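Thread title: Can someone regenerate the structure for this chain?

I was given the following input by a collaborator and told the matching structure tokens would be attached. They weren't. Posting the sequence so someone can regenerate them.
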Amino acid sequence: MCNMNSSGIEKSHSELRLPLQLSRITKSFPGIVANDSVDFTLEEGEIHTILGENGAGKSTLMNMIAGLYPADAGEMRVFGEQVNFTNPRQAIEKSIGMVFQHFMLVRNHTVAENIILGLPGVVKFKLKEVHQQIREISERYDLYVDPEKKIQELSVGEQQRVEIVKVLFRGARILILDEPTAVLTPQESEALYEIMEKMVNEKHSIIFITHKMKEVMALSHRITVLSRGKVMATLKKDETNPQELADLMISNLEAKDLVKVSEFLRDTTVEEKDGDGSVSQKQKKKFGNLTVALKDIHAVNDLGYPALKGISLDIRAGEILGMAGVSGNGQPELTDVLSGLRSPTRGKYQFKDVPLNKPTVNEMIDMGVGYIPEDRKRFGVSSGMSIAYNFLLRDFQNPQFCSRQLLKLSNIFDYGQKKMQEFDIRAPTEKTPVGLLSGGNMQKVILAREISRPLKLLLAAQPTRGLDIHATSFIREQICQARDRGLAVLWISEDLDELLMVADRIAVIFDGRIVGTLSHEEASVTLIGQMMTGMNKNGTEHVMEKREYA
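Best answer:
Regenerated them for you:
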């Protein structure tokens, strides 16, 4: 066996010198082959992107590399050494670190405890020294996290930062980054890109999973496309283009879906503005009557601390109000207030022509409020229940499905089949447990349940985060069509390109306040990103002093 050469990997190097080499890796689950004889190599000092639809086998492959479960067949080598990981600690010991899309964190432990959990000799760690190291990493990479906070106190975005800091803390030479920019501002994303480039220059190797084609083309050295568990191709970035990659990803889709994805790819380039600042080919729209009016809304978070500090906004029928902001600035509390999950401590909430006073969830459902939560697995579905039953979580009392407290099973399952076809939900039957679905299909179940009711307002929190091109295109199209039929939509996203595509106006939230609201014509990634740091749209004043790092 050859040893690693300190000068790096030459083009003629032995395959045994590769940081990672997979040969004919296969993994099956009941009823499905998740990975089918996958061959994959990761070179030293490269960013190797893996593309594929939800359900293509990306997560399964990454989980095997990270040691979460073993392959059924095939061979894995790390720096030339054959390995058979049976637990994540073995992968960590071989300098492999993964930032998971669905976080692997213990909720009732602190940030620092999560970061050192599983490391050899953990009992010998001094927490004060760990805290200091975390602070140094956080400050170095602009990934601000409080090492003494418990995970359950953190927003989704803050939890993402903990995962990134954890990998950096452990000094991984092979990094797996699964949608790492999904909850970052443009400035934070740019900083992460610079970190990634520095890592590969220092001979780190990165496996990068993203659905953002701009990131793929900007960062990748090579790109591997998976489809239904098989490798369709491995291409050099300079020898391919977004359309070719999309064609490989969706090669098994029907013709109608290929058209939708082609349209989506065209839309991923944000519209260019004319010299006078107007947006080309953008029709100015007239909206309907006022659906939601908030004035000076204040609310506290689950720990009793101020989360909303004077929110005022309005949403009209037939309008998508986009909301931009770094996760953790009050977005969950705002959707809680609008949906009846949380009572404001001060302020006025008017829905249509009705002033509300601490409405309940059921009252808001009856008034026509639908909700797509940002954490679809925890709050969007009942994982152990069937697809058909999940469609009816808001509607079990409907006489079409229930009579004298007895369920009409045939009606329920017929309805389930109909909605699966209508929303292109891919599963064996309507009786399949929702928890077995891919992220994209799970999100379609939630969307189908919400917009199939007579809605007045849809709260969509990160509705396309972590979804593939096809699912993203479908979700966007369905919500935009509902908007065109007169639905009022609050669309919360950290994907600014997405907001610029779908939103009629964009409100920017920072530290529980609305920094400003932009028309579609005046909005841009640069301006929104600036406002997400707390500055107004003129760039001259801060809403508040910059938050101190504790």
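The chain is about 30% helix and 25% strand.
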